[in-house]
Description:
The complex is a heterodimer of chains A (478) and B (727). Chain A is of the alpha/beta class and 478 residues long. In chain A, 32% of the residues lie in helices and 16% in strands. Chain A contains 14 helices and 17 strands. In chain A, a hairpin with a 3-residue loop joins strand 9 (386-392) and strand 10. The longest helix of chain A is centred in the C-terminal third of the chain and has 25 residues, at 346-370. Chain B has a two-stranded antiparallel sheet with strand order 1-2. Chain B has 727 residues and is mainly alpha-helical. In chain B, helix 27 crosses helix 28 (671-683). Chain B contains 31 helices and six strands. Classes of the chains: A alpha/beta (478), B mainly alpha (727). The interface between A and B is large, with 79 and 90 residues.
Amino acid sequence: MTIQQPHVPLYHTRREFLQRCGNGFGALAFAALLAEETRAADTKVDIDPLAPKKPHFEAKAKRVIFLFMEGGPSHVDLTDPKPELTRRHGQPLPASFGKVITPMGTGGNNLLASKRKFAKYGQSGMDFSDWLPQMAQCADDFTLLRACWADGLNHVGSVCQMNTGSILAGRPSLGAWALYGLGSENRNLPGFVVFTEGGGQVFGGARVWGTGFMPATYQGTLFRGGKSPVLNLDTPSDVGEERQKNKLELIGELNSIHRRERPGDTQLDARQAAYELAFRMQAHAPEAVDLSQETEKTKEAYGLNRQETMEYGIRCLLARRLIERGVRFVQIYCGAGSQWDAHADIESNHSKMCLRADQPTAALIRDLKQRGLLDETLVIWGGEFGRTPMTEGSSGRDHNPYGFSMLLAGGGVKGGCIYGATDEFGLYGVEGRVHVHDLHATILHLLGLDHTRLTFRHNGKDERLTDVKGKVIHDIIA
Amino acid sequence: MPRLLRVSIIALIGIVFTPLAPAADPLPEDWAFHPFQRPAPPKVNNPPTSLHNPIDHFLLAKLAEHNLTYAPEAHRQTLIRRLYYDLIGLPPTPEEVAAFVNDTSPQAYEKLVDRLLASPQFGERQALWWLDLVRFAETDGFNADGVRPHAWRYRDYVIQSFNADKPFDRFLQEQLAGDELYPDSWDAWIATGFLRHYPDEYNAVNLEQRRYEIITDITDTTAATFLGLTAGCARCHDHKYDPVTQDDYFRMQAFFAGFWPIEKKLFTPAQQAEYDRQLAAWQAKTAEIRQAIATIEEPLRQKESQRQRKRFPEEYANLLDIPFEKRSPLEKQIAAMVEKQVYSGAKDVSKSLKGTDKEHYDALKAQLAQFEKDKPADPPQAMVMTDLPEPPPTYLFKRGEWRKPGDKVVPGYINVITPQDAVAEPRNGSPGRRAALAAWIASQDNPLTARVIVNRLWQHHFSYGIVRTSSDFGVAGDKPTHPELLDWLASELMNPTVVPADGPRPAAWSLKHIHRLIVTSAAYRQDCRGQATGANIDPDNHLLWQFPRRRLDGETLRDAMLAVSGQLNHKAGGPSIFPELPAELQKTTPAWKPTPDPKERNRRSIYVFVKRNLRYPLFLLFDAPDRNETCARRFATTTAPQALTLLNDSVVLGFAKAFATRVTLEVGTDHPKVVDRAFQLAINRSPTEEERNAMLAFLQRHQGSPTEAVVDLCHALLNINEFLYID
């Protein structure tokens, strides 16, 4: 049977299959196969859904690293200084703003000035506060989007939208779309890898790097800390390698008898291939995450020598290693479980979070640049929304999806570019507004994909990441 | 033959047959919206096999057009395994296989089918795809993912309905309007849980948006499940070709506009009276203590309520100050969502107490606890749906955006099918709108309902439907591969004509009747290996020249491992269970507390708790949907993490160990016996000489202990393709 299942890795011929097997137990368990007659290889179909695919047009970026500051960093304290906010500290928003809906009902609260000191950096004179001193040094590598906006008020919907385009669950994530559109260059590692930092669970859970209505083939794989980044990667210690190898050999033997009796069923071949990929992952993933190969200097640059930066730094460094190995999309949740969510006290929360995020982010950008990888790697830094200029309680800030900042670097975006503006308090985007759909359209564009043409048929609709919306922000593309 | 005559015969043939000759594509784009009649099964010349029922006529006639025919009938071992997994979702035991293989009676196959259809496990198997369709879950989703403690009753309702072969027209009417149509039946109330399975963000503050999302979810799920229509597109715009317009869409939303979700006590009047009596007695005994507690709690609660109130836009919060009767219908719905958050009676407000206040409070609570035994148990409840007597108006939202209301619309049917507004009669305090919709859907004149459900049954048995897009019968969906067969099956569902050899005439809308027809057809009994030319002529097997092999879904895989390892607990119904998670995952997932009793844990997968934010990992890994929206057909992906899990996961290894223990207990440690028994249990046939030798050689060369060798053999069998793929 040759039912075409284009989202399942199908190998057409045994030869091709064996070619992809590599060494290891495959060589043992499938030696028998070599002796078998090779199946006719007439029918040509695209059998490997993760094989690298040509983009729609020439890509600026080949890979993406999305540094997700979960919980919502405060743009008015980081990248969007507002003198008027400082001046009117303690006063309400002007009546002209009307009623502002926020999740904690802070719309009518008084304004809260930022206590941070801002300065202009780089040739472009991009503003950064003293909470991001290292990233400020990369100013000329960044495009700063200052008037992003989103539809959700609460974390779970907003995290979901920043990942999938919709505040409601059930749609594929950006990384899944990228993998679906472009495939993966490395066939020994997952093409879409996710890290979480900070010990919490990302709001919305694994769904936000899932595939929704798309097949699971394109989903993100969560890498954990330690030598064994993938769940169930290791042979259980009470089984041991010898028994495992022996067992795999029996599985291979029985499968090959089964398949010999059922020629032409590519699903069965695919399943055997999945065991092979699993095996290759066992061999390659630990190497990819082995930081002992990095110099002390590099580790220090990423902050691995300091308690505050170590966890996030390790993940940034791993992101670079995975990108180098052809992984398509890496996402790191900094402060997983909404740790940037400074409702109560912006000062204490953000000084802690920025300390964690600043140095490793900057180190990653510098490192990519130095290795000549930044041109082809799009780095995104930001959260699911920003924070209100109004105070919550005495010193916190509520969610603000109406106007907030995102930073992009590399991958074909302009350096030192500031795009868009919020109002005098930083509440609403007023100029150069970029909806999440626009951001997604632009990211896909940088990857060489036309967001209106990258579609997946589901329930009678050709679904897109950007639904029926989204426009590419050409002004920020180099 | 004189020349003239010959010409005229040709001409005549031309006249008579031209209209019937298959044009390139005679079906109109909107075929599904047209009424249909029962087509006559075509005649089949030289059938390759016995034609068991009209299904085979339709299929073989089409195959013959392409010079194809059925594969030979599969072996009995294959057939029994196929039937078991298909109908009850479990493997047969070696004894059951032997009994069937050795049954020489002419009706052996039909007897087996009837036995399985009558098995209580039949409903447990069929419920799975239904629960996928209706996005059944036991938590809210979103971040809080709050538990829905009574949701399981709907799952049991589905299982019992399928087992009892409840007529499908009744089944669907109960789910859409059980409260209005059958208010005296608890089952019918429970069935309205269908309307309650929407994901819900209970702590949302943008409540008009939330309300719209809820109605949208209910409308879209209803349209997809019962009508096979993807209404989502029409919400935003009229589709160029699709007969379903934006107007149709919002008229359909209007059926649900008055939605009023409640928890219903499942008490008879007598039980209620008894409960009230006991409660009153308890209240009398505890009046003073409770008063003292209330004195402490009330101010705290007030404070908390005030705090919660502030989270909402004023116009929502202020609704609480308007008496219920004075609120408009829309205000009632919005206010209910506010109240749920503001007056949370269950919330423990005593946490802020300190020192002697706290001691005093705790002492009172302890006193109260002494009377706990006198307090009647909470009544059993179900999550159900009813309507406000007066529903809020419905507007057509421009571009589907709730902030842009356009014209007001009334409930009405899809115009191209029934160009009418609905006539709703109030029933049981509810406006009766949903009853009107249910009656329209359940009508024999509805061109979609019967076709959609028989197509789903077909998909269940043959992996793909006759319409491959089984929830999209609109113009964007696939056309049926066998339109006449589809119409015949739909007609047969509504008006059965085929009577089983020694059975009564099936009832109208009997799903078991359609299941029986399908699985007793020769098409279903084919081998998985058809003729070689099939792959060239019809590579996707649209015409069914062989039986499509399929992979087990995650739920069935777990059931199979439990059954094979001898651990499956067949206990049916009741609150859901929490099987163990892999150790590593358990550490990070405190919310999932494994059911302590292993016997309880080892119940079938259909009873595993459906948590939206944590689908049971094994199910998810093998393509279970996340249950946030309706799912008509699962993917069957093949991924490396699946292989890693089946090889290394501690839960799977546990199955292997139990399997090995079972085998050793049953046949001892003699290698040939072990090999044969283990293979029989897992694969439902005896190994071939070659397979037996491979396994014996494996045991022979194994370096570990004899026990480890058997465990590894059993583990390997749970990993091989033939365990996961059903021929």
